[in-house]
Amino acid sequence: MASVDRYARPVEQIEWEIPGAFPTVFEWEYERGSESLRRLYEKGKTLQWNASSRIDWSQDLDPENPQGLPDEGIVIFGSPVWEKLTHSERATVRHHIQAWSNSQFLHGEQGALICTAKIVQQVPSIDAKFYAATQVVDEARHVEAYARLLHEKFELAYPITPPLKRLLNDVLSDSRWDMTYLGMQVLVEGLALAAFANIRDTAQNQLAASVNAYVMQDEARHVAFGRLTLRDYYPQLTQAERDEREEFAVEACYLMRDRFLGEEVWDTLGLPTEECMAWASESELMRQFRSALFSRIVPTIKEIGLWGPKIRRAYSNMGILGFADIDVEALQANDERVAQDFDARRGG
Q: Is the C or the N end of the chain the one with fewer CB within 10 Å?
């Protein structure tokens, strides 16, 4: 069955073309470079894996709660709409909201695949080109894994949400290489890490948990790639140039925060869309959940030097400024350990 036949909502076209122009840079200096990026490249080569063999695809998903996630994570949990649903209707909501979420992971991973290929072409550093090439392979593997999860196990998918599509359009159409890093390596990948961690750490279904654990092992390196490159580059920019990038980061964070309201699901299931979205926006439980999704982004933004008054004020208003001092390297090390633990349980 084709992907378009699995989408819960009609897709007008199966291809999305983004026009743009950017320079392709050849680098003739092959020796001088960054030791930290060389080490990351070595790790990227060593930790390649096969999605067909490392993941146990023989496991099934429960039709009533595919990933075995707590209902408290559903954005309309506790609302009057939720309380009126029957047992069967709640099972349908779980199936659709989880398929919708994983669909956005899938589309985002394809965005990362294209962005990283763009970085290979653009970035003026041979070390960065080397590492980005390993990430291209990583992202292709992630697209493969989420597509297989949705096609074979959920048998349901959703099109890309407008906020994610807009952000990817902004990142891919910008001709400056560092904006691709900022938009994808720091913002999109950083948010994805927090979202993946929520599933990895709470899912009762081991297939769902392991997919996210193994993807996170790679993604932690990807965020490190953006952090290592931009923290060396951004001090070279003028204040006006840094201000522009801070403005982009603020707008992107607001855009990503609003992509978790689930509008397409409520509309597809015939639930009162406006009421569901209002609950998702105003619920204290969901406010805390959505804020936690920025726990990987804020400390990275601070470390790369985009830490002016405007961005600190915006993050304070969003309730996420407190994440600034999180140790992202410790999180990365933990992501690697957790993936190894999944391997040990499988005997891999």
A: N
Interval 214-249: pLDDT, tens: 999 999 999 999 999 999 999 999 999 999 999 999
Q: Where are the alpha helices (DSSP H) in 258-295?
A: 263-268, 273-282, 284-292
Between CA 165 and CA 16 the distance in angstroms is 10
Structure tokens at 190: 């950083």
- Tokens, residue 24: 């392709």
**CA–CA separation, 281 and 205 (whole Å):** 28
HSE toward the beta carbon, residue 243, CA cutoff 13 A: 5
Strand partners, 7: 157
- Within the chain, residue ranges assigned H as helices are 35-46, 51-54, 80-84, 87-122, 126-148, 162-173, 177-180, 189-202, 206-233, 239-257, 263-268, 273-282, 284-292, 297-303, 309-317, 328-346
Q: CA 206 to CA 212: how far, in whole Å?
A: 10
Cα separations in angstroms, 111 against 54, 170, 224, 256: 24, 11, 18, 14
* 80: its two tokens: 């009057």
Q: Using CA atoms in the order 10, 259, 292, 332, what is the torsion angle rounded to 10 degrees? A: 60
Which domains are assigned to the chain? 60-346 (1.10.620.20)
The pair of structure tokens assigned to 200 is: 């990895």
Q: How far apart are CA 65 and CA 22, in angstroms?
A: 45
